[in-house]
């Protein structure tokens, strides 16, 4: 094509009168927010389930197998207090896992990740205090829901192994939507999504 144009004394550059120059106009803070929005919901969902899973199984099916649950139920404390104590124990383990891993991730992204990727050295990877408080509140509510479901499911099992089989599908029921959110981001503008107990955590 270029040779034919030269034979006819035409400039090949005339075929492209307009040059398209693509530039990212997002600020470094916006790029950092996009990065965190893509990974934090997934890790919060995964760790909220995994962090309290073994504790819920041990406090419910484990005590039933060891025979300590019956003696605990005939003890002076009310059953509501016993259930609340077990729930808070599972919730503490779940939130502990979420907080530790999220903090480790933030530290590694801020100080370790830029040394691995040159383009990340200019990113301002940080969470403003207000957003951090909101994120912590959302994680707490989500972990409370997951902890209650895990404890309720585990109490019906006769052994920890059976309880593990009951609780494991819950992991996939929560993690798979967290992965799918990356491909259905157009639903974020619809109000009914925020009414769903699990999906509203990821949007």
From TrEMBL:
User: Where does the record place a coiled coil?
Assistant: none
**What is one cellular component GO term in this UniProt entry?**
plasma membrane
Q: Which GO terms describe its molecular function?
A: ABC-type transporter activity
Entry protein name: ABC transporter permease
**Keywords for the protein's UniProt record, in alphabetical order:** Membrane, Transmembrane, Transmembrane helix
Instruction: List where the protein spans the membrane.
Output: 34-57, 87-111, 131-157, 169-193
**Pfam families listed in its UniProt record:** ABC2_membrane_2
């Amino acid at each position: 094509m270029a040779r034919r144009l030269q034979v006819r004394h035409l400039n090949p550059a005339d075929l492209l009168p307009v040059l398209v120059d693509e530039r990212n106009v997002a600020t470094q803070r916006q790029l950092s927010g996009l990065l965190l929005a893509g990974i934090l919901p997934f890790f919060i969902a995964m760790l909220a389930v995994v962090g309290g899973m073994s504790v819920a199984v041990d406090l419910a099916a484990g005590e039933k197998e060891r025979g300590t649950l019956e003696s605990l139920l005939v003890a002076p404390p009310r059953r509501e207090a016993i259930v609340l104590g077990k729930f808070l124990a599972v919730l503490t383990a779940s939130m502990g896992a979420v907080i530790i891993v999220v903090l480790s991730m933030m530290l590694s992204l801020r100080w370790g990740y830029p040394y691995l990727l040159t383009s990340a050295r200019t990113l301002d990877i940080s969470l403003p205090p207000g957003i951090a408080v909101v994120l912590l509140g959302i994680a707490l509510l989500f972990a409370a829901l997951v902890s209650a479901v895990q404890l309720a499911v585990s109490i019906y099992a006769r052994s920890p192994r059976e309880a593990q089989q009951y609780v494991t599908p819950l992991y996939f029921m929560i993690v798979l939507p967290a992965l799918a959110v990356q491909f259905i981001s157009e639903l974020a503008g619809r109000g009914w999504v925020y009414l769903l107990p699990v999906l509203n955590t990821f949007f």
